[in-house]
Design a protein that fits this description.
Pfam families: MotA_ExbB (PF01618). The protein is mainly α and 205 residues long. The protein contains nine helices and no strands. It has one domain. Helix content is 86%, strand content 0%. The protein is rod-shaped.
């Protein structure tokens, strides 16, 4: 197998690098995009119950909340501006949401790009290999069909490896996009419900 990869030519080394890069980014995103790290269950209820005890949270508590998760950052922002108008809070949440989305979408474009260029790189390697094979046969006047078929099969390893890199990369890219969109939607819904619950609690104290 190693000899076949070596015989596939220099483009196959680029594909191997792309495969390592894609695998590394996919593993990183799987570890990062966990619900417990992004939108922990019951976090908003816990913070709301704690807020209702004193109708405020200490700076230390807010700092811990902000570093707890991405949702914690959003909830901390809402608590800090609990007395602000809904319009101002929405504006602040819009800015914070962009920052959160940037963290959630980190490396996704890189994975998508690898999924797009890997098949092209594989095809390029196959074309280069075919050119070299036919040039070699033309120069020595050889017309052995078995030798020619073997050379073509080796050249096609580039295409096969390109597809092997692209297919899982594309699947993971689509999956991560769906996960990120779901997190952002959940976070927006939780944040607005939390804000109005905070306002209602403050008004009824």
């Amino acid at each position: 197998m190693f000899r076949l990869l070596v015989a596939g030519g220099w483009p196959i080394y680029l594909l191997l690098l792309l495969s390592v890069a894609s695998l590394s980014l996919i593993v990183e995103r799987f570890l990062f995009l966990r619900r417990s790290r992004i939108v922990p269950a019951e976090l908003s209820d816990q913070v709301l119950n704690e807020y209702r005890q004193t109708y405020s949270l200490s700076e230390e508590t807010l700092g811990n909340l902000s570093s707890h998760s991405l949702l914690g950052r959003v909830l901390s922002l809402i608590v800090k501006h609990a007395d602000s108008s809904p319009e101002k809070v929405r504006e602040l949440l819009s800015v914070e949401s962009m920052l959160v989305a940037r963290q959630l979408e980190r490396f996704l474009n890189a994975i998508g790009t690898i999924a797009s260029i890997a098949p092209l790189m594989g095809l390029f390697g196959t074309v280069i290999g075919m050119i070299e094979i036919f040039a070699a046969h033309a120069s020595d006047g050889s017309a052995d069909p078995l030798h020619l078929a073997h050379g073509i099969s080796v050249a096609l390893y580039n295409t096969a490896l390109g597809l092997a890199v692209a297919i899982p990369s594309l699947i993971c890219y689509r999956y991560f996009r769906s996960v990120v969109d779901g997190f952002l939607s959940d976070m927006e819904h939780i944040a607005m419900n939390f804000f109005y619950a905070i306002r209602e609690s403050s008004a009824n104290r």
